[in-house]
Amino acid sequence: MKSCVIVFPGSNCDRDVAVALEASSGNAPQMVWHGNTELPRCDLIVLPGGFSHGDYLRSGAMAARAPIMRAVVARANAGTPVLGLCNGFQIMTEAGLLPGALMRNAGLKFICRDVFLKVENNGTLFTRRYQNGQIIRIPISHHDGNYFADPTTLDRLESNNRVAFRYCTSDGVVNAAANPNGSLNNIAGILNEAGNVLGMMPHPERLIAPELGGSDGRAMFDALAEQLQCA
Amino acid sequence: MRVNVTPEIVAAHGLKPDEYAHILRVLNREPNITELGIFSAMWNEHCSYKSSRVWLRTMPTTGPQVVCGPGENAGVVDIGDGQVAIFKMESHNHPSFIEPYQGAATGVGGIMRDVFTMGARPVANLNALRFGAPEYARTRHLVSGVVAGIGGYGNCIGVPTVGGEVNFDPGYNGNILVNAMCVGIADADKVFYSAASGIGYPVVYVGSKTGRDGIHGASMASAEFDENSEEKRPTVQVGDPFTEKLLLEACLELMAGDAVIAIQDMGAAGLTCSAVEMASKGGLGLTLDLDKVPCREAGMTAYEMMLSESQERMLMVLHPDRTEAARAIFDRWELDFAIVGETTDTGRFIIRHQGELVADLPVDVLADQAPMYQRPWTPTPPAPYLAATDVPDTDDIGATLARLMGGPHLASRRWIWEQYDHMVMGDTVQRPGGDAAVIRVHNSRKGIAATTDVTPRYCAASPKEGGKQAIAEAFRNLCAVGAKPLAATDCLNFGNPERPEIMGQFVGCIEGISEACIALDMPIVSGNVSLYNETSGVAIPPTPAIGAIGLLDNIEHMATIAFKRDDDVILLVGETNGHLGQSLYAHEIAGRRDGAPPPVDLAVERRNGDFVREQIRAENIASAHDISDGGLLVAVAEMALAGNLGCALDLPKGACLRHAFLFGEDQARYVLGVNAAKVDALMAAAHKNNVPVTKLGKIGGREIVLDGKSVHSVTGLRGTHENWFPDYMEG
């Protein structure tokens, strides 16, 4: 698998996701500077977490207008898998790759902790190694993760099975108590219509080995590496 | 602008008449206002350590593990395999009291710059925070602002905040303490220092532009507060963690090559202090052309530029033929890069602005002839021993335990550390909530353990025992996770040193710290002194906060506090005499604030700590926790909560009084959870090493049971323990 990680000024999980990609695929991804206009040929594009441009203006707003993003959007539209994690998800919504917006957490505070996610759609490149309904433990670490979309958009996401992950309790109940940030319908991650773009607030790259406190995130990178191996 | 230097202006710059007389003598003329500002910046307490220097010199700072001790931006310690850990703790107390968010944020930014200035990538942030009484009107606002500020800066730059400690005490009502620590890792052959060398080499300014913020911040940190301190808000700097992230990456990229000769971050007293330090350490002179300094606003005077404490700036001396390559790196990161001067062989600090010579001062006088005081001091009178028989017993152990663990001193700090990204960089192998945080050394199996510790109520009762205990507790916390303690950094927070009783506290704490550092082989490699923590004549409790790091050769041999499985045996390492003086029990439950703190036997600390670490390595220990605030029962309860498992304890026969046994704070003790099959091996090793180990009971069930009677359910205690902080902050 050849992958590219886009590095924006202020990205700070670029190295973390590169480690995860290399651990699963055996290949180090190419780190691509935001100011470039051309993307190397690759099987997967990752928009990493962090505070691109310091989250100034609005999380992801400035990064979405970086020179490289024109190429990222074009590739995404042409079917290349694109994964956006945390700030990467925020950039995706700002760039129009995914609908909706990530607002300030309902509790107004930054939150870093493990949460439980219910896998809602395992029929994607990203989620194939999970079972539908499986409960996984993945950390969140964000200030602006409160997913919002208008009722029509939300309805379309739900009816087209485009919610990939939902916040839930440790035994899989999707309720307000399990919702860390106020996201509508407990949404933690969504897909584009074609299913090749996934944006999610949680950080699967942070739990890829038992010594880090868990390895539920590993399956996402393993799945990508396996399916994109010969592409 | 010509300003006549009057005695009032001299006094407003915090210079004493005799200090000013010394300036007149060495210059053989009157300084102009810019020069006066420079002297004031270099000679204030914060930068010159004029009250503390004679005592700091007495501290142990060397050892085979020490690559660089105090005097540089941070201390450097060997961690093997051609790598070093670089770390330091620093105070940002005064600004944080005035403007908690920005004060704390820039404290974090400043300490990280100290670490990456030396070539290290920061890998962990910690902090030590002291607030006033919870019921004091401003406390909630300060806690909220400080925690948000620490998180806001560290989260954005992407360095995990993994540990710390928090105390509440009315003694901090008027002066909170915000001490921030940063640990970085570098290759041993890529450490950068501040001594300039070479003549005619470019002096380069990089980072943010210079504005009017923070002018005289260091002087503010060298004065007491009064009721008008709110008015000092404009002297608090504003942080921009995004720019610092760019500066970090650009500096490390530049340092990968061979362009940098010397580098110094612009912290307290900004351009003045960094330029003088580099020139002085290199035995050189230095000229600055202020017309070249990137400024945020027009019309800044030389005085303002030299004293600005705008954040996220660095000063470097570069190889002349690498300057353009260096410029390209900073251009790419969209940071200012300006050649603002050059090194000279004159030994003079010469500053020009708009065609005029605005300062011409001898570097050595500024740097080395700062006043140094032998402040008079009176030792703190010894506190009498408080016998356990004089401290009332409790008739309800469960309620007492819940009161302690559900109160401000011991309640879970989750509310705080969940606002910190403690996992970014993907190497956090022990998260907050244990004895010490552990960070994996990237791409290796090694781990760095880090902790911050001090017990101010012990220091207040006996500065020397308290100083010893601060180091001893740091040592214990590192041993309890399986790390070999390496070295320490100190952040010495005290009141007004011009008062002999405050100076006596300072001296006592230094003596205790020094003794413990030698006995436990943890030299002080960096640190900072914060004096004048007083408001309207009332000083803070003496608070010599210690930050310490240790090394794990292999993170697989790491212990955590959580009980692991049913039927593991609970063992107590160390001797219990039931010392209740200055214990939390005495303070909070019995209302006794008198008495001597627990004595620290450093030889016993060393023996017991080495034993626990070796047994962790030998894989005989499933869980380990040091015993500190609250005593034995609190330690056991914390292990039960962390593992979500109950336990049954039996008081050993012939033990001291029950409440003294359960809540006494005798030192050098640990609680262990040990697989039943490994108990014999561990006991044999303990016997061989003369380490007292007592069987206390075993793990299991959902309750904490004492002598057959349930004291508290784990679930109930968890609620009490977890809810205090969020409930308090909700107000």
What's the total number of strands of chain A? 11
Largest beta sheet of chain A: what is the strand line-up? 2-1-3-4-11-10-9-6-7
Taken from the alpha-carbon principal axes, the silhouette of chain A is globular
Count of helices of chain B? 25
* Uncertain runs of chain B: none
| CATH fold field value of chain A | Rossmann fold
How far from one another are the termini of chain B?
51 Å
Q: Spans of chain A with pLDDT under 50 lasting ≥5 residues?
A: none
Beta fraction of chain A: 15-25%
Described by strand count, sense and barrel closure, the largest sheet of chain B is:
7 strands, mixed
* Global mean pLDDT of chain A: 97
The global form of chain B is: globular
Question: Strands of the biggest beta sheet of chain B: in what spatial order?
Answer: 8-10-7-11-9-12-13
CATH architecture heading of chain A: 3-Layer(aba) Sandwich
Q: Termini distance of chain A?
A: 7 Å
The helix fraction of chain A, in percent, is 10-25%
Strand proportion of chain B: 15-25%
User: Helical amount among residues of chain B, as a percent range?
Assistant: 25-40%
State the helix count of chain A: 5
User: How many extended strands of chain B?
Assistant: 28
User: How would you sum up the major sheet of chain A?
Assistant: 9 strands, mixed
Secondary-structure topology with pairs:
The complex is a heterodimer of chains A (231) and B (731).
Chain A: E1 3-7, H1 14-25, E2 30-33, E3 44-47, H2 67-77, E4 82-85, H3 87-95, E5 101-103, E6 111-119, E7 135-142, E8 146-148, H4 151-159, E9 163-168, E10 187-191, E11 197-200, H5 218-227
Parallel strand pairs in A: 1-2, 1-3, 3-4, 4-11
Antiparallel strand pairs in A: 5-8, 6-7, 6-9, 9-10, 10-11
Helix pairs in contact in A: 1-5
Chain B: H1 7-12, H2 17-27, H3 33-43, H4 45-48, H5 53-56, E1 66-68, E2 75-78, E3 83-91, H6 93-98, H7 100-116, E4 121-131, H8 139-157, E5 161-168, E6 177-187, E7 202-207, H9 217-220, H10 241-255, E8 260-265, H11 270-282, E9 285-289, H12 302-307, E10 313-318, H13 323-332, E11 336-344, E12 348-353, E13 356-362, H14 363-368, H15 397-405, H16 414-417, E14 428-430, E15 437-440, E16 447-453, H17 456-461, H18 463-481, E17 484-493, H19 500-519, E18 524-530, E19 534-535, E20 538-539, E21 543-552, E22 569-573, H20 584-589, H21 602-617, E23 623-626, H22 632-643, E24 647-649, H23 658-663, E25 670-674, H24 679-688, E26 693-699, E27 703-706, E28 709-713, H25 714-730
Parallel strand pairs in B: 4-5, 9-12, 17-18, 24-27
Antiparallel strand pairs in B: 1-2, 2-3, 3-6, 4-6, 7-10, 7-11, 8-10, 9-11, 12-13, 14-15, 15-16, 16-21, 17-21, 19-20, 22-25, 22-26, 23-25, 24-26, 27-28
Helix pairs in contact in B: 7-8, 7-10, 8-10, 10-13, 18-19, 18-21
